[in-house]
Write a structure and sequence with these properties.
With 79 residues, the chain is mainly beta. The protein has one helix and six strands.
């Protein structure tokens, strides 16, 4: 199965993100992408949040959601 996701990220919410230095000197922000089985009332089935550390997950810290999206192609379904 393959999917194509269309999404957007609120750049203002990335200001609190942890910047990771890559080996090539580039800067990255690690994110988590959640694809839900069902779309919400606005037709969105994708949530994007900043990646949490193991400690944050264990402490049940609130996620910082930075974007949303929807599946625009799914090889298993016709849209």
């Amino acid at each position: 199965m393959s999917r194509i996701i269309g999404a957007s990220i609120d750049l203002a919410k990335l200001k609190t993100a942890k910047i990771v230095q890559g080996k090539n000197g580039a800067e990255y922000v690690n994110i988590t992408i959640i694809v839900n089985d069902e779309a919400n009332q606005w037709g969105k089935d994708v949530s994007i949040s900043l990646e949490q550390s193991k400690e944050e997950r264990e402490a049940k810290a609130q996620k910082t959601f930075v974007g949303k999206g929807k599946t625009v192609y799914n090889s298993d379904k016709q849209f």
